[in-house]
Amino acid sequence: MSTATAPAVRTPQPVRSPIRPVSFLSMLRVETRKQIDTRGGRSLLAMILAFVVIITAWYGIDPPDGTIRFNQFAPPALQILVMFVPVIAMLAMTVEWTQRTALTTFTLAPRRLPVIAAKYLSAIGLTMAVVAASIALMAAGAWLAGTVSGVGTDFSGLGTVVLGPVINGLLTTIMAASIALAIGQTAIAIAVYFVLPTAFSFLAFSLLKGAAPWFDVFTAFERLSGSDPWTDLPKTLTSVGIWVVLPAAIGITRALRREVK
Amino acid sequence: MITVEHLTRRYGRFTAVDDISFHCAPGTVTGFLGPNGAGKSTALRALTGLTPPTSGTATIADRRYVDLPNPGRVVGVMLDAAAQHPGRTGLETLRLSATMLRVPTARAGEMLERVGLADAGKRRVGNYSLGMRQRLGIASTLMGDPEVLILDEPANGMDPEGIRWMRGLLQDFAARGGTVLLSSHLLGEVQATVDHLVVIGQGRIVAQGALSELLSGHGTVVLGLSPAGLRTALESAGLSTVPAADGRWKVDGTAEQVGRAAAAAGEVLLELRDADSALEDLFFELTDSVDRRHAA
Fold first, then answer.
1. What is the 3-state secondary structure of A201-227?
2. What is the count of residue pairs from A and B with beta carbons less than 8 Å apart?
3. In angstroms, what CA-CA distances link B170 with A126, A223, B70, B84, B125?
4. Residue A130 has pLDDT above 70, yes or no
5. Where are the domains of chain B?
6. Are the beta carbons of B289 and B205 closer than 8 angstroms?
7. What is the pLDDT of residues A159-170, one digit of tens each?
8. Residue A234 exposed, middle or buried by CB count within 10 Å (0-12, 13-18, 19+)
9. How close does chain B come to A25, measured CA to CA in Å?
């Protein structure tokens, strides 16, 4: 109580605006803001963007064959980015339960389903914004390196280079968010997201032999974000069902029923 | 206005809240009192839509909490002051509430000032003491300019000066027509704040009513010029006595009975008043009797 001094009780100002129902738009605004207004959230975003800047600078200073080709430099960087960026969404799903702020959230908005929908949308939105900002940073870095060194930058195939990772990132984010919602605990959720689908694919490969591709969600995402998303559609749907739809169903049911303490 | 009717919450075979009914009228401060584990928090969570009741109803301003279109504009709720994100500043915490409640964001600063945290608004909540978090929590409850306040253990972690401040704030809120329900496991904390009490033990209500009513009928304390002579006078009038501090007697009778007995015997009285701290006795007596009933 060092800085708190008790003021005399004064009659507070009444709120003149009429009572309007809690809106989905306000939930969306609040959920988006919650992801970037804490120190932890900001550090995560800063770390991701710092990673992008470092690898861009590294490539720009020392390109493999002397010329700056965006379609050569961007894909591996984006692949790594897409793997890590869903952590933003996972944090958005678990933090309310680990910090117990769900108590405030669900007393202000007792209907939980719209709140969860707002969490999904805002988490996906922020993740996509980070991916877009990263691509912009990489492009700017590549252009700068090409201009400074005088070799120029080759941006051919920009659309294809960018589109795949964006779709892949979107799908991965939805999967990660659903796993996080189902588990409800940040550290465990992140561990499960990074380890389980991969470990499961390996296990399936040795145990189920030919049936393994039916469980391989990352390969399914690659197909979906590639040039022909309709290849092997049954396998794609099965693995997406197991790794995205199932955790989402478990997570949403759990969040709706879970007693807030 | 809060109305709870036959509210019951079971967890498997354990009944946390057992058929409780009470009413909180506008203009009153009601203390929800009971030992730890009595079911206070479960009842408050059921009241605020966080825990579905097994049976019974709870309404605020005649509507179930979950049916309120914007609950924060009708009822300010603080169930745990510690449940705030430590990485967020106090001001930002209130701004988030403002957005959700659809009230002007500028109100966040005003409410911080009102609870004495204006200088701490830019600091992260992780650096706040529990008392400061209680103040921030109370600021949150006031954001929507509500007519009802529901506070779970608001005095927890507050220093005496903070408790006095909160008492003024809540009594002022009730004086302007507001309804306040606050819980505590410590009677002394709320005794001077509340005008009504709902006492709960083992999930059941064991006493409720106006504070003054609950306090009355528990005897008189008397001091005479001659303690021994006074005792003889009282006992011969059929009033039983128990020794109290400094030669006083605690008498099982009204002030009038004691006065008449003393006058009849010609005993000089120096002090005659209702026995105090009876609420403390009542609190233990009531919760204890529930314990015994369950043990039997």
1. HHHHHHHCHHHHHHHCHHHHHHHHHCC
2. 143
3. 41, 62, 22, 22, 23
4. yes
5. 2-215, 220-274
6. no
7. 888 888 888 888
8. exposed
9. 9
Closest residue in A to B53 (Cα) is A259
Fold (CATH) for B2-215: Rossmann fold (3.40.50)
Residue B105 near residue B99, CB atoms below 8 Å: yes
Say which of A13, A20, A260 has its CB closest to residue B50: A260
Residues of B in contact with A109 (CB under 8 A): 100
SS3 state at B21: strand
Q: Would you call B85 and A17 a contact, using CB atoms and an 8 Å cutoff?
A: no
Q: Which of A5, A10, A20 sits opposite B102 (nearest CB)?
A: A20
Instruction: Give me the amino acid identity at B2.
Output: I
Q: Which of B70, B110, B115 sits opposite A19 (nearest CB)?
A: B70
What's the pLDDT tens digit per position in B159-215? Answer: 889 999 999 999 999 999 999 999 998 877 788 899 999 999 889 998 888 987 777
Output b/e per residue, A173-204; b: 16+ Cβ within 10 A.
bbbbbbbbbbbbebeebbebbeeebeebbeeb
Ranges of each domain in chain A = 24-257
B161 with A1: Cβ contact below 8 A: yes
